[in-house]
User: What shape does this take?
Amino acid sequence: MLRSSHSYKNGIAAPSHCRSGECGWCHSRLVAGDVYMPTSVDGRREADKKFGYIHPCVTFPLSDLTMEVPTVR
Ligand code: FES
Assistant: This one.
């Protein structure tokens, strides 16, 4: 799972709130790489899916990733 602790360890301050895929606070654009997001926790809107956004708090990386992470609000 792409937890904030991983982001912090790599010097990235990523936003996080519910940590259950529901609030969308962490939504980030997946630029490159493969991920797995269980359908049972996929709370993304259709527009998010269409434009490649994921909720890192409930996403498992399957490869190295390149992401656009919003700044902490
Ligand atoms: S922190 Fe709420 S969807 Fe990720």
